[in-house]
Design brief:
By secondary structure, this protein is α+β, with helices and mostly antiparallel strands. It has six domains: about 1-30 and about 365-505, Multidrug efflux transporter AcrB transmembrane domain (Multidrug efflux transporter AcrB transmembrane fold), CATH 1.20.1640.10; about 40-135, Alpha-Beta Plaits, CATH 3.30.70.1430; about 185-220 and about 240-275 and about 765-845, Multidrug efflux transporter AcrB TolC docking domain, DN and DC subdomains; about 510-540, no CATH class; about 545-595 and about 935-1075, Up-down Bundle (Multidrug efflux transporter AcrB transmembrane fold); about 610-760 and about 865-905, Multidrug efflux transporter AcrB pore domain (Alpha-Beta Plaits, 2-Layer Sandwich), CATH 3.30.70.1430. About 55% of the residues lie in helices and about 15% in strands. The strands form eight sheets. Strands 1, 2, 3, 4, 20, 21, 28, 29 and 30 form a nine-stranded antiparallel β-sheet that branches. It is elongated and about 125 Å long.
């Protein structure tokens, strides 16, 4: 008695099992979070420190170096990068291996930062060193501007800082909020060195006065404990110790004049409520008006859609509070793309289900028979959701693609069961007897097929890294569906077949079928496109329903002709089986060649609804010059009719910013409104870059965002050019070598653009200090240098509070007194006796050069080379090209490395071959165990290489590359190609056991299995077809998978019907000749000892 017999005889048990699966799935489905992709990016911890006024070299040695040395080697760390800028900032990003706990990673980094803190300058510790988790890319970007340009950035920044920043930072899922074009508000004390000299004062006097008079006073209380027994009241004493307004700061007392009058800050300068620093500026990309923007980086591990909803609630309140004329504009929101891509995948799933059911109905020609596999779909797919929830997965692009593929797979077993039961009923068996007898023949094949598919997918779920995450969610979703489908095929489908098919076929005649066809068409039209499409498809469905009998008759005649022609052709092919084997070996060789030649990639760069870019001017350019170029770029962006928003930010960079750099973002119309090729993101960006090339004296480049969130804002290649000589190369020499590499790589034609933003020789003024002269004049060197830094670079002295919010107080010389090097002649410093000494007496200035930004990779100085492949080239080709060019140069003491998404792509390429090899080996071993033979699995797997050849041919014909989605499809093909072979080999073995020869058994099995093979294959192809023709958001990923799976299965089905029987006959004859002993049915075991 088979397992199925238990459920056939106990219909209530069978029904309860199916209902429980459906119920559990319905409960699990709404509990699943929704996102575009799972958390693929590695955990990243960011360390930020600041040394105001310092140059990049000083920040590198005094701040970044000590921090890096301590952080390096943190448990689980993969690599570390850093940037030290000429604006005094140090940013270190520590990337950990996938799978580590980001909270633990953050604690480990924090502990190491605290170890380095004593080595840092006091000014850095006064500012604070922050350690936080980051995801490397923005979830959304907004800007605040005005309708007529009537508000400046200072005013707009005040609205942002006071009314939005804090509630936005508290929103669920928000990790960081980065402000563009502004900084934290601060009180700036601008001093005039000449006026200071007139009063015999120096900037040190201003700093000392500020420290003395802007303080937090703790004044105690009157009558506080311990007090007299008679005391009955307590009164706190309040003293306004901090200066809190511009007017109060301008009244800051510096000294007493010769006439006894007080000298105040207003006498030697002015106070202003402005920015903490002025390193950035921003304009709206459409209007050109001043703006202040902000970008939200979600907390690693949080859900993007949930985070965006919580942010939107905060923004709605903020928008309602804005004064007239102030606008809050969305530049982009990644959840728009996420929602659109999920909707596109659901549309593909809907179409797949409909097409699969139509194909099944066409073959079975009976609604009752069609209901058996139709019921398998919700049971298998909803049942899979239970496991998806249990494993902590989400509804995302990967799991939905897995479900779509499962749509074409989970009906296979049900189709085979209903076909077999129907055939036995037609042969005269009672329905329940027919079901029992059919399952005795099919149970082995069903289990073998399931084991093959599980053997393909389960091993790849354990692969490491970003590729492993992609494989895991996709593969396990299919595994879950297969497990539920197999269970249902054995426990539920035999009973359903017996119950539904027992009454005979229902002829598709009469008005009922017209009505059913019309209702089906109208329902699909409603789901797909609204009432107009529902009306149209309802009419089409009614017409088709009226003509079902002629359609079925024509189909049956055509299929009978195909079956007869197949039998005749198969007989001829088996006779020429040696030629078939030769052709097969040639196909295997061609498959190997195709694998090598077809371009590779990682993840397709989708149209995400926005773009971004960089601006770079010569190293000495000011922020004003950068903003002038930004305005020229803005005019080009604003000409694009499909660009609806944007912001350009001067003084910022994606990898550390300086005054001569800028970044920009721009958002497109929704993708459903951009249907023409010239409206695609790539086309718009290409036109922009053509216009940007006409801007003189600057490099302006637009590009798409990173294909996978969390790997940085920019997409494209990330190549690290590292100085391994520990300073043996000067920055200029290192930059020169990198530019040689870039020029040679550009000449190959592989890159659309290839560049580096590293500048080694920005003009600087170097001051040579005469220390002997300073000593003779009794000048304290440290105090003098601090005074110099305060005047020219600004000094954070202490803090005050505005509306209970912390504000720095910064002292600096006014802009008109530090615009030229000659202005240093007007600066005076105090000696220990309080006498003023002109700075020019102790320092001499000379022109020199130094890098404005210094980057490190794994503690080595590095030049980051970035680029995007040319049209018609793949990212894999770009990686191979620059790697080959680098090897040919053979630089001494220069190393290379990959970072960001490129690093994951390189790692994925090494895994791909292992994935395929492991899949085939595991399937072979499982089949060997199932059949007790090493020969039968070879027969079954012979079509796998040819299936892959068909898949790769489809990729070439469609101009696509072998990316991760295509590789997932190739892995799936191993199981799909083997399924047809299993059906033929399993039945052929049974026929040989009944006494047939190998040729007769192969012919009989192939002809008998022709209909179920074609039905399951066509149903699967129908399920995969929506992926092949996908459009809209997320279409490139779907098309990559669809091309491989559709093309591979199409070729595999056509060839397996001939190759498997031919190879079966050949191998069985060889087995009989070479291993006659293996023909024994059971080995004879020695008798055991007598009891």
């Amino acid at each position: 008695m088979s397992l199925s017999d238990t459920f056939i005889r106990r219909p209530v048990l069978s029904t309860v099992c199916s209902v429980l699966i459906l119920l559990a799935g319905v409960i699990s489905l709404p509990l699943l979070p929704i996102e575009n992709l799972p958390n693929i990016a590695p955990p990243t911890i960011q360390v930020n420190a600041s040394l105001p006024g310092a140059d990049a070299l000083t920040v590198e040695s005094a701040v970044t170096g000590p921090l890096e040395e301590q952080i390096n080697g943190a448990p689980g760390m993969d690599y570390i990068t850093s940037t030290s800028t000429g604006e005094g900032s140090s940013q270190i990003n520590v990337y950990f291996k996938p799978g580590t706990n980001p909270d633990i990673d953050q604690v480990n980094v924090l502990n190491r930062v605290q170890t380095a803190t004593p080595q840092l300058p006091p000014q850095v510790n006064a500012q604070g060193v922050t350690v936080q988790q980051t995801s490397g890319s923005y979830l959304l970007v907004y800007n605040i501007t005005s309708s007529e340009g009537q508000f400046d950035r200072n005013y707009l920044n005040g609205l942002l800082q006071l009314n939005l920043l804090y509630p936005l930072t508290r929103a669920d899922g928000v990790g960081q909020v980065n402000v563009f074009g502004a900084s934290d508000p601060a009180f700036r004390l601008w001093v005039d060195p000449l006026r200071l000299s007139r009063f015999n004062l120096s900037v040190t006097d201003v700093v000392n006065a500020l420290k003395a008079q802007n303080v937090v006073v703790v004044a105690g209380s009157i009558g506080g404990p311990p007090s007299l027994p008679s005391n009955r009241s307590t009164f706190p004493i309040l003293v306004n110790g901090n200066l809190e307004t511009v007017a109060e700061f301008e009244k800051l007392i510096l000294s007493k004049g010769p006439d006894g009058g007080l000298i105040r800050l207003g006498d030697v300068g002015r106070a202003e409520y402005a920015f903490q620093n002025f390193n950035q500026a921003a304009i709206n990309a459409i209007s050109g008006y001043p703006s202040v923007g902000f970008g939200v980086i979600q907390l690693p591990g949080s859900n993007a859609i949930t985070t965006a909803k919580s942010v939107d609630e905060v923004l709605t309140q903020f928008r309602n509070s804005l004064p007239p004329g102030v606008l809050l504009e969305k530049v982009f929101d990644q959840t728009d793309f996420i929602n659109a891509s999920i909707e596109g995948a659901l549309d593909a799933l809907r179409d797949a289900v409909v097409l699969v059911l139509l194909i099944i109905f066409l073959f079975l020609q009976d609604w009752k028979a069609t209901a058996v596999p139709a019921l398998a779909l919700p049971i298998a797919l909803l049942g899979a959701m239970v496991f998806v929830k249990a494993f902590g997965f989400s509804i995302n692009e990967l799991t939905l693609l897995g479900i779509i593929l499962a749509t074409g797979l989970v009906v296979d077993d049900a189709i085979v069961v209903v076909e077999a039961v129907s055939a036995r009923i037609e042969a005269g068996d009672p329905p329940f007897v027919a079901a029992s007898n059919a399952m005795k023949e099919l149970t082995g094949a069903i289990l073998a097929t399931a084991l093959v598919l599980l053997a393909v997918f389960v091993p790849v779920a354990f692969f490491p890294g970003a590729t492993g995450v992609i494989y895991r969610q996709f593969a396990l979703t299919i595994v879950f569906s297969i497990i539920v489908s197999t269970f249902n095929a054995i426990t539920g489908k035999p009973l359903q077949s017996a119950l539904l098919l027992g009454g005979g076929k229902t002829e598709p005649r009469g008005w009922r079928w017209t009505a059913i066809g019309g209702a089906f068409g109208a329902l699909y039209g409603t789901l797909a496109g609204g009432w107009m499409l529902a009306l149209l498809l309802g009419v089409v469905g009614a017409v088709v329903g009226s003509f079902l009998m002629p359609i079925f008759t024509a189909f049956n005649k055509a299929f009978e002709q195909v079956a007869r022609g197949y039998a005749a052709l198969l007989q001829q092919v088996i006779r020429l089986r040696k030629l078939v084997v030769v052709a097969l070996l040639g196909g295997v060789l061609l498959t190997g060649v195709a694998f090598v030649l077809i371009p590779t990639g990682f993840v397709p760069t989708e149209d995400q609804g926005y773009g971004l870019g960089i601006i770079q001017l010569p190293a000495q350019a000011s922020i004003e010059a950068t903003m002038a170029v930004a305005d020229e770029a803005r005019k080009i962006i604003a000409k694009e009719p499909d660009v609806v928003s944007g912001e350009l930010v001067g003084g910022a960079g994606f990898n550390g910013g300086s005054l001569n750099q800028g970044i920009f973002f721009f958002g497109f119309k929704p993708i459903e409104q951009r249907t023409r090729p010239q409206q695609s993101a790539n086309a718009i960006i290409a036109r922009m870059n053509k216009g940007f090339a006409t801007i003189p004296g600057a490099i302006v480049l637009a590009q798409p965002p990173a294909a996978v969130p969390g790997f940085g804002a920019q997409g494209g290649l990330s190549f690290q050019f590292n100085d391994l000589s520990n300073g043996g190369y000067s920055p200029t020499e290192l930059a020169g070598l990198a530019k040689e590499l870039i020029a040679k790589a550009r000449s190959t034609g592989t890159f659309g653009n290839l560049y580096t933003q590293f500048v080694s020789d920005a003009p600087v003024w170097r001051l040579d200090v005469d220390r002997d002269r300073m000593a003779s004049l009794d000048i304290d060197y440290s105090a003098a240098m601090e005074a110099l830094g305060t005047l020219t670079g600004g000094s954070f002295v202490n803090q005050t509070y505005e509306q209970q919010q912390y504000r720095q107080v910064v002292v600096q010389a006014d802009a008109s007194h530090r615009g030229m090097i000659q202005d240093l002649n007007n600066l005076n410093i105090s000696n220990r006796a309080g006498a003023l000494v002109p700075l020019s007496n102790v320092v001499k200035a000379r022109l020199d050069s130094a890098p404005p930004i210094i980057s490190h990779f794994d503690l080595y100085r590095s030049v980051l080379i970035q680029g995007v492949e040319a049209a018609g080239k793949s990212s894999g080709q770009a990686i191979d090209t620059i790697a080959a060019v680098f090897r040919r140069f053979n630089f001494a003491n220069i190393g290379s490395a990959w970072s960001a998404l490129t690093r994951s792509e390189v790692q994925a390429g090494a895994l791909a071959i292992l994935v395929f090899a492991l899949g085939i080996v595991v399937v072979y071993l499982v089949l060997s165990a199932q059949y007790g033979s090493y020969i039968d699995p070879l027969i079954i797997l012979m079509t796998v290489p040819l299936a892959m050849l068909g898949a790769l041919m489809f990729l070439v014909l469609r101009g696509q590359v072998n990316n991760v989605y295509a590789q997932v499809g190739l892995v799936t093909l191993i199981g799909l190609a083997a399924k047809n072979g299993i059906l033929i080999v399993d039945l052929a073995n049974q026929r040989m056991e009944q006494g047939m020869s190998a040729t007769e058994a192969a012919m009989a099995a192939a002809c008998s299995r022709l209909r179920p093979i074609l039905m399951t294959a066509m149903a699967a192809l129908a399920g995969f077809f929506p992926l092949l023709v996908a459009s809209g958001a997320g279409a490139l990923s779907q098309q990559s998978l669809g091309a491989v799976i559709f093309g591979g299965l199409l070729v595999a089905t056509g060839l397996s019907l001939f190759v498997v029987p031919s190879f079966y006959v050949l191998m069985k004859q060889l087995e009989a000749n070479w291993f006659p002993a293996s023909q024994a049915t059971e080995p004879v075991l020695p008798a055991g000892p007598a009891a």
